[in-house]
Amino acid sequence: MLELNNISITFNEGTPDEKKALNNINLRLEEGDFITVIGSNGAGKSTLMNVISGNLMPDLGDVIIDGKQMVHLPEYKRSAFIGRVFQDPMAGTSPSMTIEENLAIAYSRNKKRKLRPGVTKQRREMFKDSLKALNLGLENRLTAKVGLLSGGERQALSLLMTTFTEPSILLLDEHTAALDPSRAALITSLTETVVRNSGLTTLMVTHNMQQALDLGNRLIMMDKGQIIFDVHGEEKVKLTIEDLLHEFKRIRGIEFEDDRVVLG
Amino acid sequence: MFISIFGAMESGIIYAIMALGVYLTFRILDFPDLTVEGSFVTGAAVAASSIVNGIPPITATILAAFAGFIAGCLTGVLHTKGKINPLLAGILMMTALYSINLRIMGQPTVSLLQETTLFDQLGSIWSATGIDTFLNNLLSAIGIEQLPTTWAILLVMIVVTIIIKLLTDYFLKTEVGLALRAIGDNKKMIRSLSANTDLLIIFGVGISNALVATAGGLIGQLGGFADANMGLGLIVIGLASIIIGEALFSTKTIAKATLAVILGAIIYRIIVTLALRIDFMETGDMKMITAIIVIAALVVPKIVQTRKENKRRQVKRAQQRGNRDA
Question: Which residues span the domain enclosing B242?
Fold first, then answer.
């Protein structure tokens, strides 16, 4: 469960470049919620992710995960509760280390790291089973260096590394945006399966409106640092891209300006 | 000839411990740490001053390692908490250590010639075993005239260095070690997987300098003195060892990579020794020789690789032409 209360953050305050990146954001994710976040460039989606993960400290407001105040905890402490998959497929894995070593590092995410072997026989079996679910044949390449994998494979591995320890919150930061369409589709369907099977509470930022409509049980639209539109349940199921564009125009009085979003 | 190569191997195997330390920072942590030029001397200074003050040589050597660990941790703190660039943090620490080393020794040089060092103790236990006479008889049988006075240092140090290597290998495969390796590879990822990168960097640089100071303490005892300037140019020697090792041997796994570094350190010593035997070379030319070795180790493998690739392409083109003609 994730709760954001009155989150505000301003960049370059007091200069001509002053920008209210987040303006009094309130958001509550219930256990098992899967929220997709859309919005044009500069809407505050990434800032929101960074505030939750601890990469950025908000000027005002609380970040509460599982009832615990997290706003003052540094990123590495928060990440015991938060799993993140980045946009860049290279960002989530360590290239010069093997697949099993990467998994071992991820396996220690919510445990204290000790001076005992990271990869054991028992763990190796568990890693193999987890990798099988990806259907990429990676379970036969446990000792291959991750740097040898393709972008799609690395992103699938990142997704597995992030989710198999079942974090309280899963953050997906446009994690299919840097992949070619077929790879993106693969990662999207993997994401759907993983989230459905594990019931992880998930927040996914995407540029792809169709993806935002296809996945999750709730959708929010952001603009200029605010949440301007929030639908869930039956209402979201019936929603179309036209509806979203129409809604944006109705609320803001202008056309949605980001071509990438519509085409994506 | 034989005796000088023997001496090169003797010091090479000790310098290999230093090279392992440099490998930990340069390659594993991706932290170009110049502290080593100071912490090597700190190791020698602490060991020498301790021995002069009547502390048993083995305890003195452990104290040297500990002093190096502290120095390295301080560099780590400067970088992680003080947000100082790694190179600059190392240079600052190295500069400060110069004064600290002088304070530890109380004078620029401490002599150990009148003292019993670790190697003296080793020698007296060793001579009772008769291994020296056996090996030297073997050597004189194949016609070598100048014989080493003792094999103790070489053989025992090989064992010690291999033990340190195996411990390093094991450590780098533990949960903490894996996280440490990920820092040099992908900091963003390891932070998102809940590792305290600051603490790991401080610890890693500490361990690295503990190894370097151990080597310093042992070299001091081998040479019979500690000197404030004995660390000069050490970082290049460490790099040379790593680069030679990586150029000549496989580094596919951690165990192979650390072995390559050790062999690189020994080969470096042998090359320098042989180079200095050329008539017009002087001791002062050693630094230039080192620089040339490093440049050669960096450039030659690339040239060889390019040649191989060109040759492979030529063969393929010839084959294609052959097929077309047929």
Answer: 2-287
